[in-house]
Amino acid sequence: MSDPKISEATPLRAADKIRETARELFYREGIRAVGVDEIVAKAGVTKPSLYRTYKSKDELAAAVLREGADRFWVLFDAAVAEHPGDPRAQILAYLAGLSQRAGKEDYRGCPLTNAAVEYPEAGHPARVEAQQHKAELRERLQGMAQAMGARAPKALADGLLLLIEGAFLTSQLFDDDRPTTEVARAADALIGAYLAD
Hints:
The protein has helices at residues 14-29, 36-43, 47-53, 57-82, 87-102, 111-118, 125-148, 153-173, 183-195. The protein is built from nine helices and no strands. It is mainly alpha-helical and 197 residues long. It folds into two domains: 11-54, Orthogonal Bundle (Arc Repressor Mutant, subunit A); 65-195, Tetracycline Repressor, domain 2 (Orthogonal Bundle). Helices cover 71% and strands 0% of the residues.
C-alpha cells in the first residue's frame, strides 16, 4: 500500500508534452527550424495528438508565444510588486533581473522578439502574438513614464523599450562581456534625463 503522504506527480497530458517540447525547441533552435515530426518524436506523442489540439504548427507556435508573454509578465509584475508606487525602481528592478538572466549561457533573448524576426510577414500568428505583446509592454512603459512625471512620457517609454529589446538581442550576439550588464544603469540615466528640469 502506498503512503498517502507521498503524492505521485500527475503525468503530463499529450497536449502539455507537445507544448513544453515545442517551447524548448522553438526557443533553442527557432520556430522555422523545428518540424512537427521532431516535436512529436521528442514529446513521445503521435502527430494526431498534436493536430487534435493545434490545427497547425503555426497555431502551436502562437500558443507557445502566449505562454512566453505570460512568463514575461510574471517577471515584470514581480519587479513592480517589489517597489509599490515607485515606477522608476520597478523598471530598474525588472532590468536588473533581465541583466542576470541574459548572462546565462542558454539565454536566447525574448521568444516573442525572436518570433517577430523570424516571421516578417504581416498576419502570421507568431508575428501577431509578438506584436500584441510588445504593444502592451510599450503601453505599460508609457503609463509608468507618466507616473514618474516624465516631460515626454511616450519618448521615455520608447527609449526604455529600445533598451529592453536591445538587451534581448545583444545577449545573443556576445558570448562574453555582454552589454546587458549595463541595461539598468543606462535606463536609470535615460529616466534621469527625462525627469530633469
